[in-house]
Amino acid sequence: MSAFNAIGDEREIDRDEYTPGIEPQPTWCPGCGDFGVLKALKQALPEAGKTPEEVLTVTGIGCSGKLNSYLDTYGFHTIHGRALPVARAAKLANPELEVIAAGGDGDGYGIGGNHFIHSARENHDMTYIVFNNEIFGLTKGQTSPTSPKGHKSKTQPSGSAKTPLRPLSMSLNAGASYVARTAAVNPNQAKEIIKEAIEHDGFAHIDFLTQCPTWNKDARQYVPYIDVQESEDYDFDTTDRSEAAEMMRETEDVLNEGTVLTGRYYVDEDRQSYSQEKKAVGEMPDQPLAERYFDDDAEWERSYDLLDRHR
Amino acid sequence: MSDDELIWRIAGGSGDGIDSTSQNFAKALMRSGLNVFTHRHYPSRIRGGHTYVEIRAAAHEVQSRGDGYNFLLALGDSFARNPQEEAYYGNEEIKPLSENLDDLREGGVIIYDEGLVSEDDVEALDLEERAEENDWHVYPLDLRGLAKEHGREVMRNTAGVGATAALLDMELEHIEDLMEDAMGGDVLEANIEILHEAYDSVNEEYEFNHDLRAPTGEHDAEQALLSGSNAIAYGAIDAGCRFISGYPMTPWTDVFTILSQNFPDMGGISEQVEDEIAAAALAVGASHAGVKAMSGSSGGGFALMSEPLGLAEMTETPLVLIEAMRAGPSTGMPTKPEQGDLEHVLYTSQGDSQRVVFAPGSIEEAYEQTRLAFDIAWDYQIPTIIVYDQKLSGENTNVDVEFFDREPSPDLGSTLTEEELREAAHDNSGKFKRFNHEDAENGVAPRSLPGQKDGRYLATGNEHNPVGHISEDPDNRVHQMDRRLEKLESIRTELDEERESTQTYFGEDDAEYGIITWGSSQGAVEEAIERLNANGHSVKGLSVSDMVPFPEREVTEFVESVDEAMVVEMNATAQFRGLLQKELGRFGEKLTSLLKYNGNPFEPAEIVEGYEVNLADEDREPTAQVRIEPAAGD
To answer: What does the DSSP assignment read for A20-38?
Structure first.
């Protein structure tokens, strides 16, 4: 018998269940792209058959970090840049949980960049949504890792001398097995991509363009957006690393010229997730570790039985 | 200093197998009925560089490395990078024989490997002259040649052990048994042959002119030889810890390694991750999801854990961290012990953050207090830290096997089951009041786990209201802060009134003077006090393990009961004395400090001398490399 009966509960799920009964007033500005992520998640989760209490949403710090204040799952609002290591361990401790990690571009590609690389490398089975608004919003508009070269802000008064980081290419090279970009201005695609990411067995990275109308672009500047799967101008195989890499590079290049390309870029359904790999080498229990603490019949090993090597 | 003990030093280069040879010899001595205590000294490099292990063995109890040594097996350093004239690190080839030679006691015995140590180098040491002066007995043996003849060159350690046994008049039985446990086939055969060959040839070739012999003793119960790192790891296992995350760093790596090697067979999970920030954050994540988890590091790595530590405190996620101190600041001396991270551990992380800190003083205490750390962390939902050091981490001593015959305690403390959650307080919208300050007992609000029905809440490092939502409401802020602070006071009460004290006392109650110490300096202090009292002084000792919450009552009573007290610790800035005075707010005029920070742990004689110079008002400077800090006003 499970101690976690919210998990695997097969019932009809109303999307309103994901809205807190007493909802905190969102702190996001009117017109903020973050509302688009919230809405897409509220649609995708019930469609993927997930009940709110089997989902753990782990966020970093920034406007994006407030996501789980308005999404009524189990939530862990962590510290700046550290959502991924917290999320990874929760998934290892109880692999039956549906784990979604989220944060901003500063959070995930800047201060938490090391964790991003290693989480993708290890291919943990989780969804990672990066709210990419190309700016530090909550701290009032400083240049971020994805801000275009020449971006002027209070901390880069003469314009940034740095070329922006390439989130999709970085993700692919680090080892993510699902890489997509969507945008708040494209709600249907966003919902579909989030649903695919949830259903994907491995590290699914979504670079989610969320306009920051206060400090950066407003929604109109991400329109028109082009879905690379639907447009006839683009033809590449999402299961081919080289083709995916080329498409990602072009997507990253043209964004700063005003062309917004979105869609699925890389999908590897064959790669084993981290917990499968870890099980294969015998370093991960078959049953969720978290269940064991509630199992009255569990036999707990003792150090007393390890003493032979010390005699 | 007692005459009925052996302090055997085996010296050579890193990578020469000094560690494993000494481990087996220590076990052989233990099996022969002696109490043993080991001390390990090694450089921060993979191959070469002077390294030694000392094994102190006696029929009486041994709580420290002892003073100096009385038997030297100098093997030579096969990886020595030798030197043009005036090499920066000195002549490495001769170091196993030359280093700390002055610490060899009068009447001591020296074996050195003629096969590796050059005649010229020995001559340069004036060994003959010094041996005469100090009544040392020198046995040059071609251990390398002997090993080569019967097996392989690397087996010269075995030849050295065989020669040792001959000179100490020990039987080979236990040594052979241990070799059989460790190896097999041709390798075993060759080693056994070398062992006997060395033993016999020393007996045949030499007329012994030394008095030192192996002590004899008998144990009442079966013994196990363990290090402090073993004890911490085993305490964690018995507390039901099954998740560890870490990043390699000396000396914390030992605990990480032991648990990583044992967890797969126990259904546990070990994660070596990208950095220490991640390591501590993973432990927080695993604990949040319902597993008893720990992480740890040494000074520099622990610095990176500061933020996850604060997150655990604010989100009330149970967590055990361990901090294995080494000499700092910065990279400092990576393989040398020091108690210099106390203030770092006490105060790191922003805001009025709270944690519990224990500093075990022995192998047994390391086990007990690790278990206690898990109990406290999971009962009170608070980070709990074990702070120890390179010394306790690597030293081995024998413990009754039965000491470990305990029940495991995998209990999750103040965590609710789904059944209990249904009955727990929820807000009007049905959200679980995870941080309910209204009827929290001892400040503890029971928690739920993700995946449980009816337990949904938000954990956040921001200040938050009872269901976890971010809140900057002043009334809520004060309620939540006060409730979190109440937990620490409740822990203080539990430790003070409901549990056996974790502090350790030595000497007679009515003694005139006191010595106070903390953590791993405990054993040397205990022996120093015995010796001082045997010499007619009136001294008692207190070794403190509870750093937070500080045992105010016990320490106050101790300091009040003596005329003066000397605080002994292995750092340069008297960090523990500072804590004591901060917590008690007085006694500045009664407390002096004896400080050592040269990278080597205290020997009991250094504490005896420090006491005599300091408290017994002898008008002289200490000869040891220590520093005395006077009392306030002196």
So the answer is: -SSPPPP-SPTT-THHHHH
